[in-house]
Design a protein that fits this description.
Helix content: 25-40%
Largest sheet: 11 strands, mixed
Distance between the termini: 40 Å
Radius of gyration: 21 Å
Number of strands: 11
Order of helices and strands: HEHEHHHHHHHEHHHEHEHEEEEHEE
Strand content: 15-25%
Strand order of the largest sheet: 1-2-3-4-5-6-9-8-7-11-10
Shape: globular
Oligomer: single chain
Length: 363
């Protein structure tokens, strides 16, 4: 763990003027960026302090700012105040074309967990996630520095509790179009010093071209007091892919989309590259979890991997690599079941057809 004798937790919080102004434009505060409490986070509270960043997923922002959109629930429908904000900031066209989840399948978008829990009940929660999304779209580099400051504050709270901090930025979307791991930040020496003095966190200053969030946070990442982790449906390769994300300092769990045309091939490739595989299963209440998953696709031998319970906590970085992380399918309010159901595996031991192969759960 870091020690920072020069830090002063009671020092005034003085956000950089441009960051403070940017948050103010969208009705946001430093404490409203990262969520630090939900039932799943509470399950792992003794292992780490966890925080998550929620935006609107897939095409949900477009739906929220399009007049006349009659969603199946209030949070999925037109949000007049959010539409007004988008237009006021000159973001209407971008918002109506924004796709926060470029690799989501129809089933994933329909049954998204963004609409579970409070997100599925409250239009106010949807509006708050929409304001964060607009702030990210408007100025991703400034928004990234705001997130950095929010991480610093949460890191200091974790240190006070004697815990590491686990940060998940792809809570309900895939983040900036350029990727969180490639987003360049300009952290001046003065700002780096301010972060250390206020929170005790060592943040390396950079030039805004090659300096990423993970590079800025290299010291706490190296000493284990901070973990950046995420789930992602990104492809394996390419600048936005899983391998690139892992190389940039993230702990990554790939996600199975059972309704993707290349579902089996993508899952096998991710497991072969050493990633965990998140597997949604529509388990009945009280039904035991499977102990293994077998995947087959033409031209390749079957692969069987052990299964672990992904609902014990959200601390995927504490799980072994190369396993199937079983996640019970949650209620996504307002979901079109005909679209959403094919995204999850069925809770039985029979071979299940995927578009390009077969998945078999074992108990």
């Amino acid at each position: 763990m870091q020690t920072a004798p020069l830090s002063r937790p009671t020092a005034p919080l003085a956000l950089p003027l441009d960051v403070a102004a940017h948050l103010g434009r969208f009705g946001l505060t430093l404490d409203s960026l990262l969520t630090d409490s939900n039932p799943k986070m509470a399950k792992g509270a003794t292992l780490a302090r966890s925080v998550i960043l929620h935006h609107l997923p897939a095409r949900a922002l477009a739906a929220a700012v399009t007049p006349g959109n009659q969603g199946p629930t209030a949070p999925r429908a037109y949000l007049a105040a959010l539409a007004y904000l988008a237009d006021r900031e000159g973001l209407g066209p971008k918002a109506r074309h924004w796709n926060g989840c470029p690799w989501a399948t129809r089933g994933c978008a329909a049954g998204c967990l963004n609409w579970a829990g409070h997100g599925g009940l409250s239009a106010d929660v949807a509006a708050a996630r929409g304001r964060r999304t607009l702030a990210m779209i408007a100025a991703p580099h400034t928004y990234g520095r705001a997130v950095l400051w929010a991480i610093a504050r949460q890191w200091a709270r974790a240190q006070a509790a004697g815990l590491p901090l686990a940060v998940r930025l792809r809570g309900t979307d895939e983040g900036p179009a350029i990727g969180w791991h490639r987003l360049a930040l300009t952290v001046t020496p003065a700002e780096s010093q301010a972060l250390r003095l206020r929170f005790g966190l060592i943040v390396a200053p950079g030039d805004g071209v090659t300096h990423t969030l993970a590079a800025a946070l290299a010291a706490p990442l190296q000493d284990g007091s901070l973990t950046l982790y995420d789930y992602s449906k990104a492809p394996l390769s390419g600048p936005l892919g899983l391998i690139s994300l892992r190389a940039a300092g993230w702990d990554v769990t790939a996600s199975l989309a059972a309704d993707r045309p290349t579902a089996a091939a993508d899952a096998l490739a991710a497991l072969g590259a050493g990633f965990r595989l998140a597997v949604p299963v529509a388990l009945d209440k009280g039904q035991p979890l499977p102990s293994a998953l077998t995947l087959t696709t033409p031209g390749r031998p079957p692969l069987t991997v052990a299964a672990v319970d992904g609902d014990v906590s959200d601390h995927r970085w504490a799980d072994p690599h190369g396993v199937a992380v079983i996640l019970r399918t949650k209620i996504s309010r307002g979901a079109d079941r005909a679209l959403a159901d094919p995204f999850s595996l069925r809770p039985n031991a029979h071979p299940q057809a995927l578009p390009d192969g077969v998945a078999t759960l074992s108990w």
